[in-house]
Amino acid sequence: MSPAAASSRLVLASTSPFRRKILQKLGLPFDVVAPDTDETMMDKEAPEALVSRLAENKARAVAGDWPHALIIGSDQVACVDGEILGKPGNRENAVKQLSQAAGKTVTFYTGLCLFNSSNQRAQVCCDPFRVHFRQLNEAQIGRYLDHEQPFNCAGSFKSEGMGITLFSKLEGDDPNTLIGLPLIRLVEMLGNEGIELP
């Protein structure tokens, strides 16, 4: 680790308990801060561009309070049939989302930004992950939602829990991406900032 990297704090700009848990895998000390950002989609904005922009905006949103930090921002959306699926918020919307996804492939786009607030350098990427859903009937969807209540999760499931029972196949470079934080790409970015892992 370089002296500059050693003096930089690592900050996760996210309120997600899932991202916090994933980041803990790296064994690095970090602070968690809630970013105040507008997550409104721009007109005709592609999902890859949306999550990349929001990930960087989240990191930059907290930079004023952390002038010598490496700040991690991340954002994720799920897409099926060309439509972006957000967080369902309630059971009714979750039923609709899972019914729409049944038997189809849903692509999750996760934006990641590592922002160095000392020199204003932003490393940004979008990591896709494809989930192939089984054919699901109404009873299966209902049982899953009753068990896990994933109403704050994009796509209406938790892949780290019972959500895995909904799938026939997963395709992607990093399983952490599906949960919301692409660790393989983050390790590369940290390396560019002088933090070498392991």
Could you describe the 3D structure shown?
This protein is of the alpha/beta class and 198 residues long. Helix content is 34%, strand content 27%. The chain has helices at 3-7, 17-24, 47-63, 91-101, 138-148, 175-179, 183-192; strands spanning 9-13, 31-33, 69-80, 83-85, 105-116, 121-133, 167-171. Strands 1, 2, 3, 4, 5, 6 and 7 form a 7-stranded mixed beta sheet that branches. Strand 3 and strand 4 form a beta hairpin. Helix 4 packs across helix 5. It starts with a helix and ends in a 6-residue tail after the last helix. The model has no long low-confidence stretch (mean pLDDT 92).
Taking all Cα atoms into account, the compactness measure Rg is 17 Å
Give the count of helical stretches: 7
Oligomer: single chain
Gap between N and C termini: 11 Å
Helix and strand element order: HEHEHEEHEEHEHH
Mean pLDDT: 92
Q: Strand pairing plus helix content: what structural class?
A: alpha/beta
Strand content: 25-35%
What are the low-pLDDT stretches, counting only 5+ consecutive residues below 50?
none
Helix content: 25-40%
Summarize the biggest pleated sheet: 7 strands, mixed
Number of strands: 7
What's the overall geometry?
A: elongated
